[in-house]
Each structure stands twice: as structure tokens, then as C-alpha cells.
Amino acid sequence: MKIMQKMLLLLGLAILAAAHVQAADDEAVKKDLAQLQGEWTMVSGTNDGSALPEEMLSSGKRVCKGDELTVTIGGEVMMTAKITIDPSKKPKTMDFEIKDGPAKGRKRLGIYELNGDTYKSCFGAPGGERPAEFVSTSGDGRTVTMWKRAKK
Predict the structure, then answer these.
(1) For the domain with range 33-149, which CATH number is right: 2.40.30.130, 2.40.128.490, 3.40.640.10, 3.90.226.10?
(2) Taking the model in full, what pTM does it have?
């Protein structure tokens, strides 16, 4: 009977530890999601290894409300998406489930970094693999962008 009690105790401790890790992960998700809220303006970007044109940079906006994201260029909606983040990964991961725009119905897997009022991301092509680093080279289909929180 003592062996069974020890096993049950160990199982109970394992469940408690897993619940604690999940709670910590949930808090990290809430914290990063809260930091992503609001309007951001594009500072720099590359797609397929080429710099984004200045007119895209100067008019690029992203607005995050809850877990919904809208990206506009020149006032035109380029994408709306549901976002899912995992700040426990290294680098942190973000997935877009695209609801509207040219890649509607597809997923984009990416990585992100938050530093105060600066947000950086790198996403693979729609339906493609998740990048491991913030790099976009010719032919890889990746998009790297840098954003600053919009001044109010």
C-alpha cells in the first residue's frame, strides 16, 4: 500500500507542478497580449529579402484589439487575423489565422520580440514554416517588420 500512496502523491505533485507552469504561461500570454494592444506604425521592413517601399513604411499601421489584428497600408486593409502567441518559446512565437486579405483562410507562422514601444516580427509565407530568426532573404517568402507604438 505504501508504494501506491507514494505513486499517488507523486502524481498529485506532478499535476500541481503542471498547473503552476500553465498558470505562469497564461500570465505571460496575458502580459504580452496586453503590450501588443493599440495602434502601431511601421518603421522598417523586408519581404523576400527586399526592403519594403517607403510609401508602404510611411503608411503601414497595425491595430491590435484583444486577439484580433488589422494591418492597413495606405488606409487599405491588407489583413485581419486572429493571433495566438506563445511567449514561453525562444524566440517567442505568434501565429496569424488570416480572416481577411489576400491570404484569407491561411495561417502565417512567425516569431516576435517586444521591447517597450518597439515590436519586431518575422513571418514565413502563408502556409509556410515558422522562421527561427529575424531574417528575410531572396526567395524565402519571409517578411520581417519593425513597428513603433503610435503616439497619442
Answers:
(1) 2.40.128.490
(2) 0.80
